[in-house]
Amino acid sequence: MKKFLLVLFVLGSLVVKAQDINKRVSFNFNETSLYDAIIKIENQTDYQFYFIETWLQEYKVTGTYDNLSFPELLDEVFNNTLLNYYITQDGKVILTKYNRIYDELPNTFFEPEIVTNTITLAPKEESEDPIFYNKNTAQTISEIQTVRIGKEKENVKQNAFILQGKLANAKNGYPAANVAITIEGRRSGTVSKEDGSFSIKLAKGHNLVKFQSLEFQDISKRVIIYNNGTLNVDLIEALEGLDEVLLRGNVNKAVKDAPAGVTKIDVEKSKNVPLVLGERDIFKVAASLPGIATAGEGANGFNVRGGKTDQNLILLDDGVIYNPAHFFGIFSAINPFSTEEVTIYKGHVPAEYGGRLSSVFDILTKDASVDKIKGEASIGLVTSNAVVEVPIVKEKSGLLIGGRTTYSDLILQNLDNEELEKSSASFYDVIAKYNHKINDKNNLKVTAYYSKDKFSITSDSLFGYSNRMASIKWRHIFNDENTASVLLTNSQYKFDIEFDGQTNRNFELGYTLNETALKLIFNKKFNTKHLFKYGLELKRYDISPGFIRPLGTNSQVESRTIADEQALEGALFLSDIFKVTKDLQIEAGLRYSFFSAVGEASQNIYEDGIPKSDDSFIETRTYGSGESIKTYGNPEFRIAGRYLFTPSFSVKGGVNTSAQYIHRLSSNTTASPIDTWKLSDANIKPQRAVQYSLGLFKNLNENMYEVSLEGYYKKSNDILDYKVGAQLLLNEALEQEVLQGDGKAYGVEFLLKKTYGKFNGWIGYTYARSLLKLDSDFAEERVNNGEYFSSNYDRPHDFSFVGNFKLTERFSFSSNFVYQTGRPVTVATGSFIINDVEAVTFSDRNEFRIPDYYRLDLGFNVEGNHKKNKLAHSFWTISVYNVLGRNNPYSVFFVNEGGEIKAKQTSIFTVPVPSISYNLKF
C-alpha cells in the first residue's frame, strides 16, 4: 500500500498538462452500459480513464446531466456503484473498486499498529484515516476467501458498519437458521434467524468472520468493510459424523447445565433396548435409570425418588395424560414413533411446572415434515404401529398422524382354551399434530390424542378406560430477546366396568375426570447473564366421582350417582437462569400456587380434633355454583446451582418445594386403571414436599463416558393413605376412609454411561428408602404404632444394566438386566377359630417383603442396508424377554379354601417370552 501511494505521488508530480476540472459538461445516457458511458466521456473530454473492464459489466447508466463540473458528473455516474475515482493533475482518471485513493498520508500512519491475534484493530476515536490491509500478516492465518463490502466514501468518520445478508444451504437453497456468526478477536457475534437472515456490526477495515453450526461445515471469510453492505453465504452440509457430534453434545450438557436430577431419553436409540413382546417403550427405558422404578412387573405408574404414582406429572405436548399405559402397564400408551424428545425432571423442577411432588415427564411430539412425506411403521407379534408426516403447505405447515393397535383378541380367540377364547384384551391409541409457521414471528402447533383400553380375562366383567387430550400452542417472537407462548389444553380420563354374570346383580359403573388449562409463558433475555421465564397458569377440574346403574331389565342393582366435584387451580411463576461467572450458574425460581374447591357441591362437616366418622358428623353444607368451599395457597421455591471445576467436572445442588392438590385413591398395593382421583377440599388437605439434592458429574475420555453420583432427601406432609378395609369406590364420605400422614424418602443414585462406540449403554444403581408415618392420638387413625414404615413401593436396592454391542453397522446385540429388592407386603402371622372357621391375624403393615426381582432380556437387531437411494430403511428386532424364566412374584395374598388359610403368589411372566418385530422408516 505504501509503495502504491509513492507511485501516485510520482505520477502527480509529472504534470504534462493541467486540466480545468471546473469546466462544465453535459451528457445524456439511456440504459447505457457503464463501459460505453466512460468511452463516450473520454471521447468528448480531454480525460483518460484507467480501470479493469470486468468492474463495469454489472452497471448501466440512465440520466440527463446538464452543465455539471467534471467531478460532479463522475459523482452522479458512479453513485450507485462500488467504484471510486481519483483525478490526477495531468487528466487521468483512475478507478478503484470499494476503496479510495489518498494523495497524503494520515497523521497516525507511522504510529505502531495495535495487533491482537494477527488482526489490526480499528482506532477507538472517530477518524477519516484510510483502511490499511496487511495482506502478508493475514495470510498467516489460513488461505481464506477475502471479500470487500461497501464503498469507501469521503468525509465519513464512522469506525463501524453494518454487515447483513442471508445464509442458505448450498445444496437446496433452504435458509440456514441458528448459525453462529462471530468475529475473531472481538467479543461480539449473532445467530442467523429462521429465514437465514443476519445483521452484525463490524469494525471498519479488516475482520475475520466465522460461520459455525452443527448442521453445516464451519467457514471463515476475511471481510474488508468500507461501508454498510450485504454478504450472502452458501453453507455446505456437515454430513459426516453428525449423530456422534450430537450425542457428545448431550453428554457434555449433563455436566454444564445447572439443574441436577434431569434426564433426557434418546427415543431413537431406545429401539435397541429389548423389552416385552418387542415393544419400544420410553417409560420402560426410563424405569431402567436410577431413581425411577415401578412397583412390580405389569404395575401401572412410576415411583420417582420414593414418591407415589400420582405424584408424577405426565405431559404430552403440554397436556396432562393421567394414565399413560395400556393393559396394566405392560405397554406404553405413548407412541414412540411420534415422539421427538422426553425430558424427566426428578430433582430440580423448573418453576413453570407444578401440581405434582415427585417428577415431571415432559414428552414432546415431532413436528411434521413441511417439505416431503415421511413415515415409520412396525409390525410385531401383538401390536402394529404407524406414523406418517404429510406437508400441507410446503415450507410452512405439516400434519403428523400416528396410530397403534393390538390384535390380541384374535390371538385369544384362537387359543385351545375355552375360557380364554371368551376373553378379550385390546387397546389402541391415535395421535395427530398440525404445525404451521404463520410467519417469521408466529407459529402454531395443535395436538390431539386419544387412547382406549378394553379387557376381560376369564371373567364376567368387561373393563375399559380411556385418555383424551388436546393442546394448542401459539408462539410469538417479539425480537431476539423476547418471546411469548400461549397454551390451551384439555385432558380427560375415564373408566367403566360392565358386570354381566349369572345373577340378577348385573351393573354398569363409570368414572370421569376432566381438566382444562390455560398457560401464558414469557421469555426475556435480559443480558448475557440473565434469562428470565415468567407467566401464569390457570386450571379447572371437573370430576364425576362415579355412578352405578343396572345393566339389563332384570338387574336388581339400584342406580346411584356421586355428586360432582369442581375446583380451580392457578399459579404465578418466575425463574432466572443466572450465569454468575463462567463456572458458577444458578437457576432460581418462585412459584405461588393456589387452589379452591368450588360448588355446586355438598361438603360434610365434622367435629374438630376427633376422627372423621358418622359419630363426629355434624352436617352436610351445600355450596352454590362457583362458591368457594375451601382455598389453599402455597409458595414454592425452586433453586439449583452448578459449579464447574473443570470443563468435564461439576458439582450441582438444589432445593425444591412443591404442592399437590389432586390425589389418586387406591386400596391396592399398586396403582390400577380403576383407581379414582380426589380433589383437595375442606376435609382433605393438599400434599406438600421439600427435596434437597446434591450431585457430582464427570465426563471421561472426550465425553465417551458419563459418570454421576447424586444424593437426595425428601420430606413430605399430608400424604394420602387409606384405612384397613377402606371402601373407596362410590363412597360419598371418602374422608372417613383415608388418612393423611408424613413421608420421607432418601437415596443415592449412581450412573455410568458409555455414550458411543461399538459397545455402549449404561449401568445404574440406586439405594433408596421410602417411608410413611400415619400417627394420631386415636388408635383407629394410627398405623404401625405411629412409627415410620416402608411404603408399598419401598425397594432399597435397584440395579440395572443396558448394553448394546455393534458387530457391524447393521448387526448388533442388546441386553437388559434388572435387579430389585422385593416389594413390602403385609402377611398373615397367625390364625384363630371363630364358629369353626379359621381366621388370621396380620403383621404390621408392610412388615415383610416378597422375594427379590431380577430379569434378563436379550435382543438381536438387524438394520437394513445403508444404500443412499432407496425407498425406505428397515429394521428387525428379535428378542427374548425374561431369558432365565424367572418366576418373579407380582403380589402375595391370602385366601380361605375349605376353611383353611392359604398364601397365594401371582406372577405376570413366568417363562421366556420371545418376540420379533419389523420396522420400516421412509
UniProtKB/TrEMBL annotation:
<keyword id="KW-0998">Cell outer membrane</keyword>
<dbReference type="InterPro" id="IPR008969">
    <property type="entry name" value="CarboxyPept-like_regulatory"/>
</dbReference>
<keyword id="KW-1134">Transmembrane beta strand</keyword>
<dbReference type="InterPro" id="IPR037066">
    <property type="entry name" value="Plug_dom_sf"/>
</dbReference>
<feature type="domain" description="TonB-dependent receptor plug">
    <location>
        <begin position="256"/>
        <end position="356"/>
    </location>
</feature>
<keyword id="KW-0812">Transmembrane</keyword>
<dbReference type="InterPro" id="IPR012910">
    <property type="entry name" value="Plug_dom"/>
</dbReference>
<protein>
    <submittedName>
        <fullName>TonB-dependent receptor</fullName>
    </submittedName>
</protein>
<dbReference type="Pfam" id="PF13715">
    <property type="entry name" value="CarbopepD_reg_2"/>
</dbReference>
<dbReference type="GO" id="GO:0009279">
    <property type="term" value="C:cell outer membrane"/>
</dbReference>
<dbReference type="Pfam" id="PF07715">
    <property type="entry name" value="Plug"/>
</dbReference>
<comment type="similarity">
    <text>Belongs to the TonB-dependent receptor family.</text>
</comment>
<feature type="signal peptide">
    <location>
        <begin position="1"/>
        <end position="18"/>
    </location>
</feature>
<keyword id="KW-0472">Membrane</keyword>
<keyword id="KW-0732">Signal</keyword>
<keyword id="KW-0813">Transport</keyword>
<dbReference type="InterPro" id="IPR036942">
    <property type="entry name" value="Beta-barrel_TonB_sf"/>
</dbReference>
<dbReference type="InterPro" id="IPR039426">
    <property type="entry name" value="TonB-dep_rcpt-like"/>
</dbReference>
<keyword id="KW-0675">Receptor</keyword>
